[in-house]
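User: Sequence in, structure out. Go.
Assistant: Echoing your sequence, followed by the structure tokens.
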Amino acid sequence: MARWTSIQTLMSMLAAIALLGSPALAPRPLRAASLAEIVDRGKLIVGVKDNLRPLGFRDEAGNLQGLEIDIARQLAAEILGSPEAVEFRPLGNLERLNALSEGRVDVVIANLSQTASRDRFVNFSRYYYLNSTAFLTLNPNLQRLGDLSSKKIALLQGSSTIAVVRHELSTATLVPVQSYQEARSLLESGKADAFAADLPVLVGWVQENPRYQLLRDRIPGESLSIALPKGLAYSTLYLRINQLLSNWQISGWLKERIERWGLNSRTIKNQ
């Protein structure tokens, strides 16, 4: 009986191996969808931020809102015929490129700038927003960049902002922090006079807490773009998205959305 049981077990294992080797059942490598496949599916899957006001965040009802959410919906509207034909997948900073290369999303619109290292893994569209380094403070006497020349400026440890600010304000004291919460604490306690970061981040702070104010001067930074998969299979998708971005810039739709979310300096309330 024991021998018969062993033979049955062996036969079951061989059958399972044969099934796995079948082309119909073998696991297929993950890859992102082409434009034709997206159209056939009837849905665009977009990696976004859900915690970065005003680019991508959840409102009081839990709905996703923001500039990048608007861009994703408009892509769906023009490619698939409906702004609702989109599925949002919130991503952390470290998983944005992996989600794209593993085929979990079709495109990424999530506060992502084009760099030489990222160019090795993904393609980038033309820009949809020109970013900049901005400065936040609780001191109404600080208005211009020169006012910070002898002040203490908090910055995120390891961020590219450190080199940018050091170049522009060589006599200021730079205070590295580990988190946004630590930066808030230093500002509130007076241990830092200002906090330097990307403009969209600081605009969100001002929108949530009007006690903060942004300095008038900003330092030009990297532009934000849509990340797409590399490869000839995605060239049609790449060309289509670039054409839409160009159309939106010409028509003024993109400018209107940027101003709607307070990302144009002229529309920030306390300026």
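User: And one key feature?
Assistant: The first strand starts at residue 44 and ends at 48.
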